[in-house]
Amino acid sequence: MLVKVVAVLLLVGCAYAGISHVSSSQGGGGGGGHGGHHIIEFYTFPHYEYKYEVHDPKHHDVHEQHEKRYGDKVEGEYSLHEPDGTIRVVKYEADHKNGFNAIVERKGHAVHPEIEHHHHH
């Protein structure tokens, strides 16, 4: 599981990155005042989409997420099963102009175990 999360984070990190590369030319004199060095910049337009789900009944871990990004606009949703039996659903979006905005919803009814009290006489 950790490997999948790291792989997704690396993918997201690469989508955010603008990459610069500096190269130098060998030889005499070249470059017209730049010392024989020139900078080449590469920029990849951020665009990705991913989805994952975890359903682990042994550890009661059930959650999922999906997200997509196109340029500076990110939209996504995730949900998880809470220990009280409810499901939390978070829908979010973010962009350069409005920042991060989320709507959190709770579905279902919370159930808590009964606690027995023993009185000693």
TrEMBL record:
Keywords: Cuticle, Signal. GO terms for cellular component: extracellular matrix; extracellular space. Transmembrane segments: none annotated. Pfam families: Chitin_bind_4. GO terms for molecular function: structural constituent of cuticle. The keyword Signal applies. Residues 1-17 form the signal peptide. PANTHER family: CUTICULAR PROTEIN 76BD, ISOFORM C-RELATED, STRUCTURAL CONTITUENT OF CUTICLE. This is Uncharacterized protein.
